[in-house]
Write a structure and sequence with these properties.
- With 158 residues, this protein is mainly α.
- Helices cover 71% and strands 0% of the residues.
- The protein contains six helices and no strands.
- Helix 4 packs antiparallel against helix 5 and helix 5 runs antiparallel to helix 6.
- The chain starts with 6 loop residues before the first helix and ends with a helix.
C-alpha cells in the first residue's frame, strides 16, 4: 500500500494541535487575515438595501465576520514573535489558554454553519438555541483565555 494511504503513517506525520498553536507564524496570518476578512465584511455590509444582491452581500458579510473574528483571535493568541517583529504586541498565552481560544474560535465558526445546515430541517427553535449556545460558549472560551493571561500578567510582580 502507498504510504500516503497508510492511516498510521499519515497520523504520525500530522502535527499536533499544540504544535500548530505554538507556532509564532500564526500571529501574522491570523492578525492580517482576520483584519482583512473583517474589513471586507464591513465593506459588504454597507451595500445599500436597494441593490438587487443586497441580501447575498449581507449574508457574505456576516460569514466573513464570523470567520474573521476567530481568525484574528487565533492570531492574537499565537506565541509572541521576537521583539523586533512588526507583530510583537506582548501577548503571550500559555498552551492551555491557547487551546481555550482555539476551541472557542472553532465554536464561533461552527455556530453559523449549524444555523445554515439545521434551518431547512424545520426545527428552527432547537437549531437557533444550539447555534446561540455555541456562539456564547465560544465567546466565553476566547475571553477566558485572554482574561486568564491578563490576570496572570497583572499578578506578576514587576
Amino acid at each position: 500500500m502507498d504510504r500516503s494511504l497508510d492511516v498510521g503513517h499519515v497520523a504520525e506525520t500530522l502535527p499536533s494541535l499544540d504544535g500548530a498553536l505554538d507556532d509564532s507564524r500564526l500571529r501574522p496570518v491570523g492578525a492580517v487575515g482576520g483584519v482583512v476578512l473583517l474589513l471586507a465584511g464591513v465593506a459588504l455590509s454597507l451595500t445599500p438595501a436597494t441593490v438587487a444582491w443586497a441580501f447575498w452581500a449581507n449574508a457574505l458579510a456576516a460569514t466573513l465576520v464570523f470567520v474573521g473574528v476567530p481568525l484574528f483571535c487565533l492570531g492574537l493568541a499565537a506565541p509572541d514573535p521576537p521583539s523586533d517583529s512588526l507583530f510583537h504586541v506582548g501577548v503571550d498565552l500559555s498552551a492551555k489558554q491557547r487551546r481555550a481560544v482555539a476551541l472557542g474560535s472553532l465554536c464561533i465558526v461552527l455556530a453559523p454553519i449549524v444555523m445554515a445546515a439545521g434551518s431547512p430541517l424545520g426545527i428552527s427553535v432547537l437549531v437557533l438555541a444550539t447555534a446561540a449556545t455555541m456562539a456564547f460558549v465560544g465567546a466565553a472560551l476566547v475571553l477566558t483565555g485572554f482574561i486568564a493571561w491578563t490576570a496572570e500578567t497583572l499578578a506578576e510582580p514587576s
